[in-house]
Structures are given as C-alpha cells and as structure tokens.
Amino acid sequence: MGRVGLTTENVVRAGAELADEVGFEQATPAELARRLGVRTASLYSHVANAHDLKTRIALLALEELADRVSAAIAGRAGRDALTAFANVYRDYALAHPGRFAAARYRLDPATAATGAGVRHARMMRALLRGYDLAEPHRTHAVRLLGSVFAGFVDLESAGGFEHSSPDSAQSWTAILDALDSLLRTWPTTS
Amino acid sequence: MGRVGLTTENVVRAGAELADEVGFEQATPAELARRLGVRTASLYSHVANAHDLKTRIALLALEELADRVSAAIAGRAGRDALTAFANVYRDYALAHPGRFAAARYRLDPATAATGAGVRHARMMRALLRGYDLAEPHRTHAVRLLGSVFAGFVDLESAGGFEHSSPDSAQSWTAILDALDSLLRTWPTTS
DNA sequence: GCATCTGCCTAATTCGTTTAGGCAAATAGC
DNA sequence: GCTATTTGCCTAAACGAATTAGGCAGATGC
C-alpha cells in the first residue's frame, strides 16, 4: 500500500506508453490506473479528466516529434532535408502509433497555440527554404507536404497498403522523389 | 407507444446523420436511441453492438462516396477527372464530417474487402489512365493521391488551416494543379 | 516530534453497453 | 375475421467506465 509516486508528468508518460500498446482511443483513465497499480480515482489528482489526459498525451507527442524533426533537419537542405523530415514522421508513427494518433487529437485553439504545433509549422517552412518558392506558393507547399505526410502515414499504419504490392516503403521513397521534383518545378501559373 | 418501425437500414442511416451532427465518436447507441425516441436496448435487435453500428456507418459512407466519385469522373479524363475526384472527397467531407470520419474507421480486412473500398481503388486507377504511368509508378501515384486527399481534407476539417492565409480553398486548387503537373512528368528514375 | 501537506484510498453517482426475457402490434394462414 | 406466428419495442438487470466527495496515512518542513 505504499505510494506509487504519481505526478502529472508520470501519469502522462505512462499514458503515452499505454496508448502505443492499446491504441489512443483505448488509453482510458481506468486502464491506465490498472497498469499503474492504482485506483482510477487516484489519477484525478493529476489530470482533470479523460479529455485532459488525452490532451496532455497529444502535447507530449507533438513535442517529441518536433524535437526529432528539429534534430533530423539540422544541417540538411533540399531533398535531404525533405526525406529526413518525412522519415521522422513515418518512423515515429510506426514506432509509436498511439502517440502519433494522439498528435492528431483535436485540440482547442488556445491549447494548440501553446503547444509544439507551431514549431512544426516553422520547421516545415524552414525546410522549404531549400526550394525556390515565393508566397503564396510556399504556403500551398507547406500544406501539401503536411497532407501527404499525415495522409500516407495514416493509411499505412491503418494497413491500407498491406495487401498489395509493391510494399509501402517503395511507394514512400518514390513519393518523396516525386515531391522533391515537384517542389523544384512548382507550377506558378495561378 | 406505437412502433417506430426500426430496421437495420433505418438505424444505420439515422446513425450517419447523428455522426454528422455530433461527430463519429459521439455517435453512440445510447444517443442514437434517444434521437429515435426508443430505448437503447431496442437498437440491439438491429445492430449487434456499438462496433457493428460504427462499421455499418462506415460502409454506408464508403458506398455513398464511391457513388459520387463514380458519377463525377464519368466522361472526364486527365486534369478534369483529377479535380472532379478530389472535389468529391473534399465536398463530402465538408458536408458530412461524421460520415467522412466513419469512412476512415478501421475495418477488419474481411469486411473491408466486401465493402466499397475496392471500388475506390479501382476508380483511382481508372483516373490515372489519363496519365501515362507504367507500374509500379501507377501504384505509387495511387497512394500519393490517396494520401493527399485524405490528409488535406483531414487537416482542413480539423481546422488546421483556419488561422492563416491564404484560405484553404486556394491551397486546394494550387495543390491539384501541382499534382496534375506532377503526374504528367512523373520522375521514373528509381 | 509535531503539524501540515498530499498521495492514494473508499464510497457513491451517473451514464453507456449489453443480455435476457416479456408483451403487444403487425402479419399470414385459414 | 379469427387464430397463430413473427417481431418490434419494452422492462429489468449486470457490468464497467468516468467522475466527485471526503478520509486516512505516509512523507515533508520546522
């Protein structure tokens, strides 16, 4: 009956691990308490409620992801930076599916503004400095890349590419190739 | 106390509408029963359980989406077909957010194989006939398009583009432009 | 060594999911 | 038009998750 030593930090980190194991949706206070060897009610001193727990896991994931992207693109430019950035997303999603799902959890605007979401946007723009894009094309490109990364990784981890050849890793590199070449010859007609 | 006239069909359709109003995750049997003016338990004669309800809503959404895509791309090719296809996705997602979320619900492989998912894949390949892509590039392109459509629409409906200019509609057309030009000059290096 | 703080507890409420079994309205056979 | 059957919706009840209120005891500060 000794104390387990819970803190908000603690609980959230354990929640993130739980999410990776059983899925973000199933990372509930009840299940988390079970894992921590504690009564469910005890968690409510550290997180406000189920939504708060999920929000904190989401913020943790965004932070981790931003750290990794930041490390990966340092000193790289152009196509190198593009693949490094993209691979961080993909690797993170494959290694930490629950956290990655958490990173896509709908945050209210105020919370999102405080979190690491802004860092992501900034890094994406930094990445595009290696390509010669004026506004508004740069913004369009940011959104395209964000869409492709999120979309591909989502489909892949949902098993959408599982039952067909070639395997998804090949498509991934081919797509990065294509995006690189697209960014170099971005159509500025409109 | 007269009978409401529930059928599986009925219940699922009402569930889809509920999902559009309150979100797919919140489209629970309990809430649905409330809307239908019926006790929760009564639904269980028509759907097996909450998961079954969600699965059926997902299948309905996939079907509707496939029907619309099919109508939209008939008689079109190349860039016309591409934008028609893409706009069906986007319009559907904006008009029916709950159903669209449902369409991304993880189905077990057997169920997925029976559903309209395969029609989507076939139509996407048909769309690409307008571009000159040999295998495996065509498959890569299918996956790229799937990723972009899903990713963009997801981010947009999650409000990811809300607090920055230019507005998302402009990015959408710019991205379709870019994709069209990319498909016409697909890099076949690898 | 005492007072305080606080981490985790028990107890209780509310709500969603699900199963079992019953009654009555619709339907079909004659 | 009466009877038999189906079946749509019900009540009752079990179970589990989320959440709040309040209490005890172990850690901490003096």
UniProtKB/TrEMBL annotation, chains A, B:
Gene Ontology MF annotations: DNA binding
Name of the protein this chain belongs to: Transcriptional regulator
InterPro entries: Homeodomain-like_sf, HTH_TetR, MT1864/Rv1816-like_C, Tet_transcr_reg_TetR-rel_C_sf
Stretches assigned to the HTH tetR-type domain: 5-65
The entry's keywords: DNA-binding, Transcription, Transcription regulation
Membrane-spanning residues: none
Top-rank taxon: Bacteria
DNA-binding region in chain numbering: 28-47
Native organism taxonomy: Bacteria, Bacillati, Actinomycetota, Actinomycetes, Kitasatosporales
Protein species of origin: Embleya hyalina
